[in-house]
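[step 3/7] fold_predict: job queued, chain A
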Amino acid sequence: MVLSPAQFAELLGLSRGTVYFWLGRGRLRGAARKRGKHWLILREAALKAVFHGTEWDVQPRPRQ
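[step 4/7] structure written:
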């Protein structure tokens, strides 16, 4: 099943911005494809990357 970033965000209870942030950082590498200006997320591969992938290096954002 192929999802849009909005559908994937809704599935996980996240904001669309979070999903686009992950896409930009390559956190869903191998689970998402870009077609033109649209992202297509492969549901099963993306869920596997999120829940069973390698640990993500989480660094807090500096406050402004």
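[step 5/7] annotate
The first strand starts at residue 2 and ends at 3.
The chain has a mean pLDDT of 89.
exit 0
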